[in-house]
Amino acid sequence: MSKPAESNATILDVARRAGVSRTTVSRVLNEPDRVSKDTLQRVQDAATALNYSPNSFARSLRSGRTGVIALLVGDISQPFHGSLAQAVVEAAEERGFGVMLYDLGHSTARLEDVLRKLPRQGVDGMIIATADDVSTSSISDAVRECIAQGIAIVTGVEQFEVDGITSVRTDHREGARLAMEALASEGLTRPAILLGDRNGPIGKQLVAGAQGATVHEVGYTFDDAAAAVKILANDHDSLIVATLPMALGAMSALTRAGRSLPVVVCEEVPFAAQVTPAFSTSAVPPDETGREMVRLVDAVINSIPLEPRALHASLTRRESF
């Protein structure tokens, strides 16, 4: 008797048919004791209907692959991270991956806790996307443990001195430099640059690219930036701002004080063009970054030779400058 043909169904197909998440299917594959009997039965029935069992289940168990990646973002309330998460999910689904989202809330303790848990969560890879300085020894140790457990790791910017990590190649200095050059072309030579964390991996690059600008580390929020602008020296003739919420806070404070300064934001998100005034930006769009992150993590998971690809910032002029 010939063997039945193996199905091309994926773990996502099983999840959709069973009406559960890919993470739940992953748990059925790896930790069936962690799901209810009803959920276990639904997933098994869906897998059988799609001819995903037993061969595909067995292959997944043998390889240790679940088709799930984790996305760790610095602060999901930030427009950039929301847009980035959407781009990562779309690109991941195109490649047959599901995504588990973790919001770090700018907390190194939270990041370390997530890293310690992930090897038990059945993920094939993870993407760490944060502008915070998280390069502590304990976090680096947790990252090494994840790599030792076979988890592929991609970061949005180089921030760990740990072998086995792949980083997206974005030179954030370029965005700040383009902003400085555009301002200078209009005779604006005394800018201030507002940063959330000047010691973070992106903050350091923005400072390096904004040579000649006065650096102010003010925090990431609307209120942080607004408070900083209230006491900003009057001799500044323009602003370069790290994030859109900070730019909104800065613009609000300027308006209340009866001041008007050109503003350029070092991140490009759709919302930047939808507010009044629309903000000029100098950055790489999050959808481009998200797709590159998924391309890299897919390559590492599947041992595909990596082709270096640099992402370049571009300046978009709108109403704020």
TrEMBL record:
Residues 10-57 form the HTH cro/C1-type domain. CDD domains: HTH_LacI, PBP1_LacI_sugar_binding-like. Signal peptide: none annotated. PROSITE patterns: HTH_CROC1, HTH_LACI_1, HTH_LACI_2. Residues 9-63 form the HTH lacI-type domain. It holds the Pfam family LacI. Keywords: DNA-binding, Transcription, Transcription regulation. Transmembrane segments: none annotated. One of its GO terms (molecular function) is DNA binding. The keyword DNA-binding applies. InterPro entries: Cro/C1-type_HTH, HTH_LacI, Lambda_DNA-bd_dom_sf, Peripla_BP/Lac1_sug-bd_dom, Peripla_BP_I. This is LacI family DNA-binding transcriptional regulator. It comes from Paramicrobacterium chengjingii.
